[in-house]
Design goal:
CATH class of chain B: Mainly Beta
Number of strands of chain B: 11
Largest interface: A-B, 28 and 26 residues
Distance between the termini of chain B: 37 Å
Order of helices and strands of chain A: EEEEEEEEEEE
CATH architecture of chain B: Sandwich
Strand content of chain A: over 45%
Helix content of chain B: under 10%
Number of helices of chain A: 0
Structural class of chain A: mainly beta
Structural class of chain B: mainly beta
Helix content of chain A: under 10%
CATH class of chain A: Mainly Beta
Number of helices of chain B: 0
Distance between the termini of chain A: 37 Å
CATH topology of chain B: Immunoglobulin-like
Oligomer: heterodimer
Largest sheet of chain B: 7 strands, mixed
CATH topology of chain A: Immunoglobulin-like
Shape of chain A: globular
């Protein structure tokens, strides 16, 4: 069963623009993580946000968390061609000690 | 530090045949995970080990899939017999600490792509 659902499923933007991806989850969480997956590769951890945090930054990445709406967003500013990848949110369902991933957003940055 | 090693990278078999995947996690990582990722979908957890004990295998099709982690280090995932729907990428990941409240970060290998004909 999926804990998180990303939206949109696919996003195509021009290089230099900002990209925003959203994640909604079903049960209350303590933490939520975002991962990136380049084509044909494994997933790479990007950022972890705790339930008592509302916003977190890492370089060109900004993650927000709204626990009242059970949603998170990932913003990539000043996108580059190298940002082309799939992005996944992941969190453990309530009471479970495992990380469950959403279906992902496929981001394409056009030069 | 060396990453998570997986082999083989690619495998093509016919249905009803068997296949095995191998994973060597990052040295010192206590927790090891096998995920199945079907094309266009997110990874689905098959089995999670804490050292050499199983923490979660609720989504492992136990009639055909098996996994072991001997001595709490390397792990193998076996499929026997394979079905067409097993075509997927099998991702191995490891983390330093046990999965508690989702706070630990997973390091993934490059994956093993299985095609069942």
């Amino acid at each position: 069963s999926q804990q998180g659902e990303e939206d949109p499923q696919a996003l195509s933007i021009q290089e230099g623009e900002n990209a925003t991806m959203n994640c909604s989850y079903k049960t209350s969480i303590n933490n939520l993580q975002w991962y990136r997956q380049n084509s044909g590769r494994g997933l790479v951890h990007l950022i972890l946000i705790r339930s008592n945090e509302r916003e977190k930054h890492s370089g060109r990445l900004r993650v927000t968390l709204d626990t009242s709406k059970k949603s998170s967003s990932l913003l990539i500013t000043a996108s580059r061609a190298a940002d082309t990848a799939s992005y996944f949110c992941a969190s453990p369902p309530r009471g479970a000690q495992k990380l469950v991933f959403g279906q992902g957003t496929r981001l394409t940055i056009n030069p | 530090e060396a990453g998570v090693a997986q082999s083989p990278r690619y495998k093509i078999i016919e249905k009803r045949q068997s296949v095995a995947f191998w994973c060597n996690p990052i040295s010192g990582h206590a927790t090891l995970y096998w995920y199945q990722q079907i094309l266009g979908q997110g990874p689905k957890l098959l089995i999670q080990f804490q050292n050499n004990g199983v923490v979660d295998d609720s989504q492992l099709p136990k009639d055909r899939f098996s996994a072991e982690r001997l001595k709490g280090v390397d792990s193998t995932l076996k499929i026997q017999p394979a079905k067409l729907e097993d075509s997927a990428v099998y991702l191995c990941a490891s983390s330093l600490i046990p999965m508690l409240s989702g706070a630990n970060v997973l390091t993934f290998g490059a994956g093993s792509r299985l095609t069942v004909l």
